[in-house]
Amino acid sequence: MDAKIASPLVDCLQYANWSPSVFTEMRAGGVHAVHATIAYHENFRETVANIIAWNRHFERHPDLIFPGRSGSDIERAMREGRTAIFFGLQNPSPIEDDIGLIEVCHMLGVRFMQLSYNNQSLLATGCYEGEDPGITRFGRQAIAEMNRVGMVIDMSHSAERSTLEAIEISTRPIAITHANPHWWHPALRNKSDTVLKALAQSGGMLGLSLYPHHLKDGSNCTLESFCAMVADTASRYGVEHVGIGSDLCQDQPDSVVTWMRNGRWSKATDYGEGSAAAAGFPRQPAWFGSNADLGNLRHGLRNAGFSEEEVGGIMGGNWLRFYTASFGPMP
Question: Quick check: is 331 in a domain?
Answer without folding.
Answer: no
